[in-house]
């Protein structure tokens, strides 16, 4: 018999959760314009909107907050963070930022010239926005399997080397400032990149004098999948695998709000001293002094500890295990999800869930809204709304994947919470034909998924027909 395991931690503090009635949730959803980003936290029961900054910190991290050195320059807390990044990730130069997109902004400004091309293994919203605002064109070079949610491929985040080579041949290596390699790939379903593929990408880029910059936000989760799935890796520690991963790159942007186990902060790291010097000047302009970069000393103390806690093998095994606990139950119930289950979230396949809705009726947005209405569980759309519009034609970008992301915060919920989520989704699936599409009433010019507002397309204005909803 396979023995069950428990969380590798015990709970010291609790927070009471909101348990609103159906009518109260309906009112909250209407006020939010059917956009889960605009729902007040006080009205949410189980919050799976994001794993960014929603981590529960450890007792060691909370204790470290009291020792934070808030000096404007030369903070002792900064020295601890710098050492942790060098020890765990292996990069020589580090610059703190207020969060990951601060690092993306600086990297994009310094590396990109108008007319450049930035290839990547599927886009991420803010990353691509920074690249495009600085004049680059994003080119997707992920393997084709990543765009099919039903394919069971162990490393769906891998770069298609032939696609990368074709782009180099077409535009010239001088027009490619760097390859943006995400580990793991968020919008593909939290899918990992193999060690072999990372090494091959790095060697190809070195041959053409092109940098490889990692989006390292969930790199520890990627290391876990390498340990589990890649030949020759099973007996290595997560820490050793991670450090080798990072060696096949020239630098990274990091949102510390994920795998660094803190609520705010990030950094830009690299091995090129010239790029570091230029980046240091922009940090002063956009973030703060190079010794705090928009972070308080106490936050740097907590991040320095979180970086080391995240590579604990027991922690990361539980982290991935909880995501699988949710995902496997949905698979067993016949719910269409992205396979295999990824590292930080379970992704519902909204196209298969709501086949009666066209992509222009925003099925993922509608499904996320319906889930909140049904149970108070907040999730997020990752489909046509998140993809935005083509900067040249103005038409909707239409991704192959139309997903609802159920993102699990680290060390926050128990598996009982995941069971509640399963029950709600299964009930929704049984009455899926009663869920209508949405129209967009307000569209922001950029990153529209954050602030767009919608309304139901039904004649009576109901998202779920009244005769079919659970009372």
Automatic annotation (TrEMBL):
EC main group: lyase
Entry keyword Lyase: yes
Transmembrane segments: none
UniProt keyword annotations, A-Z: Lyase, Pyridoxal phosphate
InterPro entries per record: ArAA_b-elim_lyase/Thr_aldolase (IPR001597), Beta-eliminating_lyase (IPR011166), PyrdxlP-dep_Trfase (IPR015424), PyrdxlP-dep_Trfase_major (IPR015421), PyrdxlP-dep_Trfase_small (IPR015422), Tryptophanase_CS (IPR018176), Tyr_phenol_ly (IPR013441)
Source organism, top-level taxon: Bacteria
GO molecular function: tyrosine phenol-lyase activity
EC numbers on record: 4.1.99.2
Record field: catalytic activity: L-tyrosine + H2O = phenol + pyruvate + NH4(+)
Protein name per its UniProtKB record: Tyrosine phenol-lyase
